[in-house]
């Protein structure tokens, strides 16, 4: 069984102070994809950098205290790549690809457009550039898992207050259409939704208005796979019992050779 977890830490040092590491070490995770590290290489040491038994691979943002992705893995790694060839986004530390013997796993952090119109425009540029990149990955004829914070809720089931958010970043028609194209035309699979069709399953909550307590959330964190690995998914869980971040870890277990 291959266990993969994706988690937006909203600051890895902050998440560790809130108890993330004991949870992680008790859950027998093979590969952890982290987003929003909010740290630089020099800021990380000891278990905050990576617990014993795992090997870390990072993509730090040029700007201090901003963005950043990582993969922690205890499986043998064949090769690693950071960035996907677009300087605007590679400078923001949004992409780490780790190739295992029979599977590639990518930790990715899509931009948020909620701050202002400029950031939304940047998000649209990211989506425009990223889909052709994903098409090129499919040409490699190997299995991929794309794990991370997409900052998009795909369907009405994926957020509590969908009616009032139809004109808000993260649920805009253009963003949702991009996700539909990813799944319906490009052949990628929303692995969590393949296993769990239930409503009220969210991975992010606003820190205002007791949103987490009331479960007024959004499902914006994904594991998206090529069909071969997606078909091997057996179990999934969103762990929201403890608050390590404004996001919750998303774990999926695959019946996949290690």
List the helices and strands and how they pair.
Layout: E1 2-8, H1 12-17, H2 20-25, E2 31-35, H3 46-49, E3 55-59, E4 69-73, E5 79-82, H4 87-90, E6 95-99, E7 104-109, H5 117-138, E8 144-149, H6 173-185, E9 189-190, H7 191-195, E10 204-205, H8 211-214, E11 217-218, E12 221-225, H9 227-230, E13 233-238, E14 250-254
Parallel strand pairs: 1-2, 7-8
Antiparallel strand pairs: 1-14, 2-4, 3-4, 5-6, 6-7, 8-12, 9-12, 10-11, 13-14
Protein traits:
six-stranded mixed sheet; 258 residues; alpha+beta; 14 strands
Extended strand count: 14
C-alpha geometry: globular
Main-sheet strand order equals 3-4-2-1-14-13
Structural class: alpha+beta
The radius of gyration is 17 Å
Helix share, percent = 25-40%
Q: Profile the largest sheet.
A: 6 strands, mixed
- Give the count of helical stretches: 9
Structure report:
Helices cover 26% and strands 25% of the residues. It is an alpha+beta fold. Strand 6 and strand 7 (104-109) form a beta hairpin.
Summarize the structure in short.
This protein is α+β, with helices and mostly antiparallel strands.
């Amino acid at each position: 069984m291959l266990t993969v977890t994706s988690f937006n830490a909203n600051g890895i040092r902050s998440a560790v102070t809130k108890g993330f590491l004991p949870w992680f070490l008790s859950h027998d995770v093979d590969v952890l994809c982290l987003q929003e590290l909010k740290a630089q290489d020099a800021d990380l040491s000891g278990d905050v950098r990576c617990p014993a038994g795992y090997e870390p691979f990072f993509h730090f943002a040029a700007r201090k205290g901003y963005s950043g992705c990582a993969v922690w893995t205890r499986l043998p790694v064949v090769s690693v790549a950071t960035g996907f060839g677009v300087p605007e986004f590679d400078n923001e530390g949004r992409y780490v690809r780790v190739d295992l013997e029979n599977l590639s796993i990518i930790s990715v952090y899509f931009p948020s457009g909620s701050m202002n119109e400029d950031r939304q425009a940047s998000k649209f540029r990211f989506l425009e550039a990223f889909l052709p990149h994903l098409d090129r990955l499919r040409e490699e004829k190997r299995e991929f898992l794309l794990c991370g914070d997409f900052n998009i809720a795909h369907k009405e089931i994926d957020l509590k207050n969908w009616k009032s958010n139809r004109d808000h970043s993260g649920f805009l028609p253009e963003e949702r259409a991009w996700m539909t194209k990813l799944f319906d035309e490009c052949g990628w699979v929303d692995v969590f939704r393949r296993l769990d069709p239930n409503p009220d399953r969210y991975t992010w909550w606003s820190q205002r208005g007791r949103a987490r307590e009331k479960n007024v959330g959004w499902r914006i964190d994904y594991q998206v796979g090529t069909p071969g690995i997606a078909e091997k998914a057996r179990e999934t869980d969103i762990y929201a019992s403890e608050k390590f971040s404004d996001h919750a870890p998303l774990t999926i277990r695959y019946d996949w050779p290690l």
